[in-house]
Amino acid sequence: MKLRSTSYDLKLKHTFTISRSSRDVSPVVLVEIEHDGIVGYGEAAPSRRYGETIETVQQFLSGLDLARFYDPFQLEQILDAVHGAAEANYSAKAAVDIALHDWIGRKMNLPLWKYWGLDKGKAPITSFTIGIDTPDVIERKVREAEEYPILKIKLGGENDIEIIRTIRKITKKTLRVDANEGWKVRETAVEKIRWLEQEGVEFVEQPMPAADLEGTAWVRERVNLPLIADENSIRLHDVPKLQGAFDGINIKLMKCTGLREAIQMVHTARACGMKVMVGCMIETSVAISAAAQFTPLIDYADLDGAALTTNDPFDGVGIVEGRLVLSDRPGIGVTRKDLN
Hints:
By secondary structure, the chain is α/β, with parallel strands linked by helices. The protein is about 30% helix and about 25% strand. The chain has helices at about 55-60, 75-85, 90-110, 110-115, 135-145, 160-170, 185-200, 215-220, 255, 260-270, 285-290; strands at about 1-20, 20-35, 40-45, 130, 150-155, 175-180, 200-205, 225-230, 250, 275-280, 300, 315, 320, 325, 335. About 50% of the residues are buried.
């Protein structure tokens, strides 16, 4: 097996701002695993929040020796070796995991959703993310997202109320809110969540810092809206710890090291009586389409990462009136675009 990787800068349609950062370009690492004349595609979208950069991803990948395995069907053995190569490096490991799964699907000439026995008709509607911005830009973003019936609103700054009021002047669409740990004070979080409930918000994602799980449980006792864990929901072992503080989890391939662990997280969350959401970073259609393969199993989707960019080099999962449309193409279902 040969592993190749290259960095790629995704350009954003708008400056993307959350409670802790802003950016116009989002770098990713695209991965190819080639064996028996077949190429499987993977992707790493590193986040400094979890200790990764393009450089750490490339360093981790360059240290892997996949040639000692005879083919990608040794999936469990290969991924155990990848995980044992170094601690953390979540998105780098996810890139290898995705590429291996894609290769297997291509070799079997089956899309992963079919290989897993899922009904692609049960893929949910994805939300479209509106980052923190000024009222005029917020208004423009909302109008550009006309085809999406659900909007995910980034809050956690000083103009939270202004943002929601701006959006509510334009639309009555379902809103979901993500504070990205932005509300540091428990009482503030309670006050804002109670106000958001009056504005027709469906749920709130990560209201408090991940380090303050006790504070989140305190908030949850005092509000009616469901709380979804993001920064608190990283790996499989995190899930049981979130009972009592959160009503659901957000699974991201770039945090949980890929599809193998993501599926395990779905079933663990269900056993804990929790809802399941699948989210993303700013990613190409490689990682987005990979995550979309198991969405028939989940409750909520936020897989708009590629839709926020202008130069996605792949064609993958479709979105029609907000609903994810899984293709019958094998593996994760992506093909390269000709951007020349």
